[in-house]
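Troubleshooting entry. The earlier prediction with zinc ion gave an output that would not parse, so I re-checked the input for stray whitespace and re-submitted. Clean input:
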Amino acid sequence: MGSSTQVNKKVADCLEAVEAELKANNVTYQIRQFGCLRNPDAQIGDMSYHEYGAACDINWDTNPYVQGSPPASLPYDPNCHAGGHCYDIPPEVRSAFDHHGFFWGGNWGHTIYDYMHFEWHGENP
Ligand SMILES: [Zn+2]
């Protein structure tokens, strides 16, 4: 991912697969911030997976943790034109993580949206 961070070994293998898929698909999204095992800027609510190095946060300055009433839909909206939540992780990046066992925090629902967060559910850490 272009920067070093500590992760569970099995998770690291999956992250490499994600990176390979992004490269193979020529995905140009820049991962500027990347943290797995504890991220000092990370928000509350997801620390258990981070403690095992089984959750990673990406670009948290543009993909916030949001608590509140959900908009009717959550379109990919890097410029917030839809008036909903603002995040900029594009669909092709989210699907690459999904293919390799990561659940996206933006899909949690129940008024909690953790757009920076990818949590590995491939196997128990
Ligand atoms: Zn997180």
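This one parsed fine. The helical segments are 9-24, 47-51, 91-99.
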